[in-house]
Amino acid sequence: MGRWITLTVNGSKRRVEVKDNEILLDVLRDKLKVKSVKAACWRGECGLCSILLNGKLVKSCLVLAVEVDGSEILTVEGLARDGELAPIQRSFIEHGALQCGFCTPAFVLASHKLLEENPSASEDEIKESLSGIVCRCGTYYEIIEAIKDASKHYQVRKKV
Amino acid sequence: MSFKYVGKPIPPQDGFLKVTGTATYTFDLELPGMLYAKLVTSTVPHARIKKIDVSRALGVPGVVRVVTGKEYPYRVGMYAGDRDLLAIDKVNWVGHPVAAVIAETLEAAEKAIDLVDVEYEELPAIFDPLEALKPDALLIHEKMEEYRHSPAFKPIPGTNIANKFTLVRGDVEKGFRESDVVLEEEFHISHVSHCYMEVQNVIAHYHLDGTVEIWTSWQNVAPVRQIMALSLGIPHNKIIVRIPYVGGGFGGKAGLGWEALVAILSKAAGHRPVKLVLSRKEQFSTAAVREGFHAFAKAGFKKDGTFNAYSVRFILDAGAYADYTVNVGRAVGYSADGCYEIPNINVESLTVYTNKIPTTALRGFGYPESHWVLEQIIDRAAKKLGIDPSEIRRKNLVKPGHSHTCTGERLREDAGDPQKVLKTLVDEIGWGKPSENPPEPWKVRAKGLSLFVKGPAQPPNAAASAILKFNEDASIDLLIATGNFGQGTVTALMQIVAEEFGLPLEKVRVDYVRDTHKSAYTWQTVGSRGLFTDGIAILKAIEDAKNQIFTVASEVLRCPKDQLELVDGEVRVKGKPWEKIPLQDIVMGYTYPNGNSIGGPVIGRGVFMSTHTTYLDPDTGQGNPTIFHTFGGTAVELELDLLTGEINILKAVEVLDLGKVINPLLVKQQTHGGLIMGTSISLYEEIKFDERGWVVNPNFTSYYLVRIKDLPREVVARYIETPQLDGPYGARGIGELTMIGVAPAIANAIYNSIGVKLDRLPMNPEYVWRALREQRPDLVEEAWKRFSKYEKIVEVTI
Ligand code: FES
Ligand code: FES
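^ inputs. structure came back:
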């Protein structure tokens, strides 16, 4: 009935059967049990289903699974290395940049991506790049602080 | 007194799981053999159900059962008790669930709901609560007299009134006669959705032995169990409600949920577990939202600014079901006086049924509504009297220790310092100092103020309890049911425990799952009461545990109990720190060298019970409704575009008298969160209905929420610490408070600067643009002139 595709999710190769109309969000959550990827609108408006697809930040509810056969996917589960949190994760905790936490995986991932690309992002750049994700608890000021504070680690990394 | 944890900016203790994506929400849970349910919802606003034909739906492969209301005629509710599990005989709004499909897969369930054929005989629908109040209006609830409602409410069978709240204090007519200035004003608020990011979702497993297990994205376990027990007739100990992490609540997951329904679906599907997940669209059209609101107010002032008489009629558009909104209506009513002393006051607050989406509480529980009215009245009176808005507030503010609220409750001496709140607010916003001129001359800049006060809206006997049990290594399991849906409360409570025992914070653990079977009872975490009520219960549990520990230690150390102290995980004799026992040698019982043992495992228990709260008198609204008051204020400086009606907040100041800040990091986070949500609701949010009662904007494109790029440019949060003597470390609640003042402060800024009255929420550009044209066409014309000149200048410079 479906087609088999291969995805590399957080470093491990997974084969999964998908239907032609199945969205990547459902494949990740329901079939591959990657539950850090959340959803709140299912139509590209909340950004909670954001993942890194071949290094690009995308909303997985807008992607058909069959179209991304062979892709690499990074979610927030794949950020910590050997139990060591990524600097952005530590910074989110220290700055209290989370309340209910439902949007946190998406914000952490998007912030990580932003800092990797632009470690000295200005406040305006931070706002611009994160405007696709909603935090109803309104933790935005803390998120901005967390990103600014974590940026030094990414600057060092980039130099190395 | 210096503390190690209390008053320190401790990061949220569940942060690690949240940043790694490993915190588990009900949304993420699956059980073996689990089925999926979807709701068939009404497509008409008001109709008799003639026939439901489920045969086509049953033909969909994978469909296990289709359940209709008639099969399980249970009535459910917490306060009004006005709801059936699924519609029986009649539907009352577009979106009303009439049947539920249960299937092996979500896909099959989704397919089958479209194949359930419902035949309706339409009735005239009522969308306006003022229409619903007319004597000849059609009845939406024909069986109101059968409803089992709480004694705190007064439904009026034979009308569309779900609750009538009345408050009378002083002589309002005489008050008006003796006033120098009398104003009459109207205000309105549109329906808004909570938009918590995790949609409502429930798993129920009705076991063959009659035990029911529930996992749900809800705020509190106890009310879920209580509603299920009362409506389904299941004994309390056979219902186990579990709540893991919750993706936001804001009051919208506090009243009646879907648990009883899904439990019945599980039973109907052969006792297999069933999961129901609402879609975002259903969140906007089937789940409960915040009510629509009208207010008709008359206010009398003396020449010197004394607020002398206030008469106000609140009409809440509660929609088709008002189970929780009856309590919102009551809270709007008894908070009508805000933080002012008004000797003569009359309030009528009607919670009214209409054929729209049902309603419930939203962060602030009626207080944002009452303050939207009152705080604007104050500014309008100030202008009429030629008194400064800060001055008229200063003059009328209640005096703790002397004043009475409008329910006749004497404010405690230690209730807070409203004058200091006002002063701090005025200083921080630079009140009286004119704003800088905006760079674009067709815009204006303005400042506005608003004060507020709030206590938890709760029944008088709403209790809390805590159990604290020691493990072998002197670590602690704190068994509490405190709701945990984004606030900092649990971290703050853990800080208190660590502080009191002199233990490192890591030694204190609160399980992330609230569980009716395992957590100590707490009535509910709502109304900003969690830290206060559960904190008091925990302090008592600590005292109880310490007493057990000291009893053993005093025997071992041969020293009276009052000479002992707990420091760094040891019991020591005061002044002789070398005479000591480590806690872990006591908490499971102390064993002497010969093997004799005394004491035993230490388990502390404590309760909170309010002893001074009462029901309110049904005719006069007099009594003691609340356990504490938190005073606060919001000030904004904003920029208004006279051509587009757009409002931009440049600076927002929030001041709160919290008694004691237990955790400055998380209190600030709550303050910012409330300011942002308040801004969003003030400026953008509105559920829109078409003339057939359909919600036309059930998504985040046409229902706009504030995003990170829309933040007020600058925010300032200031806390005053006037200790509440019965609060934990002197603390009061904060969660909802931070939102209340935003809307009136914005409206006041605009009224003060250009005299334009904004009576409606949201103050979106379209509404403000219209108000500007109607009330100040001269200003708009002038702005156009400036704009066209400016364009020319721009052209030249280019
Ligand atoms: S679920 Fe994908 S953007 Fe909202
Ligand atoms: S922390 Fe709750 S939605 Fe962002």
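Residues A 98-103, 135-137, 139; B 197, 248, 486 surround FE2/S2 (inorganic) cluster (ligand 2) (CB under 6 Å). The radius of gyration of chain B is 28 Å.
thumbs up if we can close this ticket
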